Amino acid sequence: LQLHESGPGLVRPSETLSLSCTVSGFSISTSNYYWAWIRQPPGKGPEWVGSIFYTGSTHYNPSLESRVTISVDTSKSQLSLKLNSVTAADTAKYYCARHVMVPMVVSTFDLWGRGIMVAVAS
Amino acid sequence: QSVLTQPPSVSAAPGQKVSISCSGSSSNIESNYVSWYQQLPGTAPKLLIYDNNKRPSGIPDRFSGSKSGTSATLDITGLQTGDEADYYCGTWDSSLSASVLFGGGTKVTVL
């Protein structure tokens, strides 16, 4: 199983950050897992961005929910992240991960991609 | 400031034991399962412990997790130089603003 993030490494302030994650070696259309985006600013701890089930059902971090859209394309085995109106505070390494989740009970990120560093700067 | 509080750093000599605490509240640690992650320098986090005290395949039994009330603990016994890393706890928070949380992280140094 591999997860591979891709997208631009630099985004201008106020624009939209767009990333993709390709899942290989495992079916993204499984009923056992969600698929998540997690970010980690330099020198800080991880922050959950949101998760999606293969049906398209999503859960978002309330602090980012107004700016985030996560989608899934099962035919391409890909999930995508869009974060709009970015500022320097959105500069971080962005990871996709496989997510064992029962809302309000269980949250385990059992497999992670290598991540992609995204800087927000003019 | 993370909702889940971890000590910034712990250290011990090779072969010794370290314990990392993760302090939360009734809406997160006390009522939900806790996971622990190890992040070696320059790499992605890796799952060490899930469901409070279970180890994924391939994780040595030198790593163990426990939970009591609003706190969780990760113990590392027989400390090795390769254990130098950042360690994060994680869980759900079931408050009104339900979210997945991570602790602020603890740097383990092998002296």
Q: How much of the sequence of chain B is in beta strands?
A: 35-45%
Radius of gyration of chain A: 14 Å
| Mean pLDDT over all positions of chain B | 96
Compute the number of strand runs of chain A: 11
Largest sheet of chain B: 6 strands, mixed
Please summarize the sheet with the most strands of chain A: 7 strands, mixed
User: Assembly state here?
Assistant: heterodimer
Largest interface: A-B, 25 and 27 residues
**String of helices and strands of chain A:** EEEEEEEEEEE
Low-confidence segments of chain A: none
Order of helices and strands of chain B: EEEEEEEEE
Structural class of chain B: mainly beta
**Average pLDDT of chain A:** 96
What do you see in this structure?
The complex is a heterodimer of chains A (122) and B (111). Chain A has 122 residues and is mainly beta. Chain A is built from no helices and eleven strands. In chain A, the strands form two sheets. In chain A, strands 2, 4, 5, 6, 9, 10 and 11 form a seven-stranded mixed beta sheet that branches. In chain A, strands 1-3-8-7 form a four-stranded antiparallel beta sheet, with no helix packed on it. Chain B has strands at 9-12, 18-23, 35-39, 46-49, 63-68, 71-76, 85-93, 99-102, 106-110. In chain B, strands 1, 3, 4, 7, 8 and 9 form a six-stranded mixed beta sheet that branches. A three-stranded antiparallel beta sheet of chain B has the order 2-6-5, with no helix packed on it. In chain B, 39% of the residues are buried. Classes of the chains: A mainly beta (122), B mainly beta (111). The A-B interface holds A 44-48, 51, 61-63, 95, 100-101, 103-115 and B 2, 32-33, 35, 37, 43-47, 50-51, 56, 88, 90-92, 94, 97-105.
